[in-house]
Structures are given as structure tokens and as C-alpha cells.
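Hi Y.,

Following your request, here is the sequence exactly as I used it, all 104 residues.
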Amino acid sequence: MTTLTLELPKDLLRLLQERASEREQELQEVALRILQKELAPEAKSERELVIQALQEAGLIRPLSEELRQMIDPSIDYEAVRRELAERSFDPPLSQIIIENRGEK
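Below is the corresponding structure, written out as C-alpha cells. Let me know if you'd prefer a different format.
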């Protein structure tokens, strides 16, 4: 680790000392944790971690540019979801998907 010397205003030093005292930690530990929280890249959400794991396992992949261009940003996803939920498909949608996949 590299050493960094800082000149702190008295009120900021007092706040840092109070926090260190409350947590029963050294000033350096508290200051380091504050800096890491502020400067370190934000941790990925659980959703992002799951997507990353699925992509790395080859189970999903990002949309191709061709498919991405087909997305209409003016369409409300929730409205589409509600409409599809209200529809009944004959044959069932799962059967249509299986047929479109073809043989394995």
C-alpha cells in the first residue's frame, strides 16, 4: 500500500475520529473504507451478476445488432406484457416455440 498524507479541517477530523471511535476502528481503516466506498467502482446488482454468469456459461447472449434495431422504443413493455397475458393462443404459445425451434 502507498502512504498518503492529508491535511484535514478540524471539524472533518473530529467527525472521522468520532466514526472510528463508534466502530472501534483505527482512523486509517475508517478513512480507507470511506474512500473505497466513494471511489471504487459500484458493485454490480444481483441481476447484473446473474446475467454475467449466464453469458459466461453460454446460456444467453446479447442481442445482435439486427435484433436491436427491431426494437421500437415507443412501445411500452408493460402494455405488451399485459396484452400477451390476456390473450389465449391456440395452439399454446409453448407449443409454437417448440415447433419454431425445430429438432435439437
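The mean pLDDT is 85.

Thanks again,
Q.
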